[in-house]
Amino acid sequence: MFKIILKEELGQNVKSFFIEAADTARNAKAGQFVILRINDKGERIPLTIADTDAQKGLVRIIFQETGKTTYELGTLKEGGYIKDFVGPLGQPTEIENYGNVVAVAGGVGTAEVLPVIKSLRNAGNKVTAVVGARNKDLIILEKELREICDELLFATDDGSYGTKGFVTDILKNIIDKESVNIVYAIGPVPMMMAVANLTKEKNIKTLVSLNPIMVDGTGMCGACRVTVDGKTKFACVEGPEFDAHKVNWTELISRLSLFRDLEKVSLDNYKNNSECKCGRE
Ligand SMILES: Cc1cc2nc3c(=O)[nH]c(=O)nc-3n(C[C@H](O)[C@H](O)[C@H](O)COP(=O)(O)OP(=O)(O)OC[C@H]3O[C@@H](n4cnc5c(N)ncnc54)[C@H](O)[C@@H]3O)c2cc1C
Ligand code: FES
């Protein structure tokens, strides 16, 4: 059992937990993730390791409530426990001194890009972060990003913060003006695909962290398979980071929507059954 030491609400439906998991905290590197299970009957879900405190043995996860398990996870309280917490899993991000780096993040991808930016800065890179959200209220971790980035730019769909428009509008401005050595993109698949299309034109190396559905996280079940450069890869053991210009995006989008109807039924059932019935006839 893994204890929740600190719980914070970072924004609309986005929560952060510091979990007591000493082995994972000691061994984790940027870009890796855990697979957790809330209880014996729970499904396994992958979440990125957003931060660690090796001395205190703590691992930070930040998650958006999108479906049944993430909603249920959000109901757990400080002092409560998670049944399984397995990690670090996946290949760490390739960290080198590339020079001028742009890190693009969308939505809860901001949490996933944080450890990558920290490691890139420690390796001597200049890092500009471009963060996108639908509106100002959905922006998370601004203070943490300000502390670690050389430059920080925001794009919101409605213009309520930063530039009105998409992260790709800002990225296009940057790569038109200066020489960028590498781009990292982490966020919703359509955003990562748009970034890949943009940087491909200029031949800028681009890495993305893919989020296919995962089950066992060991390369055995095949659930997380993605096609990269025409070859089948298992994102849990060979990724989740891949060359953005070689990913088969159409296939990934189609596989992510495979269980959408069942996921909705599962969330509706959870909400209907877990709602407080006090005071009802
Ligand atoms: C390596 C990896 C790291 C991840 N890190 C984070 C993280 O740090 N924070 C975070 O909030 N989420 C992260 N995700 C996504 C997270 O695993 C899913 O949101 C979660 O599994 C949804 O479970 P659920 O039961 O709540 O929702 P479900 O009922 O399974 O799905 C609800 C909705 O979420 C979508 N969804 C399901 N699985 C994924 C997925 N893998 N990626 C994107 N959308 C999905 C579905 O299409 C559906 O619309 C990560 C995914 C991977 C593969
Ligand atoms: S999650 Fe099962 S093979 Fe990757």
Q: If you average the pLDDT, what whole number results?
A: 92
Radius of gyration: 19 Å
The rounded distance between the terminal residues' Cα atoms is: 38 Å
Beta fraction: 25-35%
Q: Spatial order of the strands in the main sheet?
A: 12-11-10-9-13-14-17
Tell me the series of helices and strands, N- to C-terminal: EEHEEEEHEEEHEHEEHEHEEEHEHH
Q: Give the ligands present.
A: flavin-adenine dinucleotide, FE2/S2 (inorganic) cluster
Quick structural overview:
It contains 9 helices and 17 strands. By secondary structure, it is an alpha/beta fold.
Structure in words:
The protein is α/β, with parallel strands linked by helices. The chain has nine helices and 17 strands. It has helices at 22-27, 68-75, 109-122, 142-148, 167-177, 189-201, 235-238, 249-256, 260-274; strands at 2-11, 14-20, 33-37, 45-48, 51-53, 58-64, 81-82, 84-89, 100-106, 126-133, 151-156, 163-164, 182-186, 205-209, 225-228, 231-234, 241-243. The strands form four sheets. The chain has a seven-stranded mixed β-sheet with strand order 12-11-10-9-13-14-17, with helices on both faces. Strands 5-6-2-1-7 form a five-stranded antiparallel β-sheet. Strands 4-3-8 form a three-stranded antiparallel β-sheet. A hairpin with a 7-residue loop joins strand 3 (33-37) and strand 4. The longest helix has 15 residues, at 260-274. The chain is globular and about 55 Å long. The relative contact order is 0.13. The structure holds flavin-adenine dinucleotide and FE2/S2 (inorganic) cluster (FES).
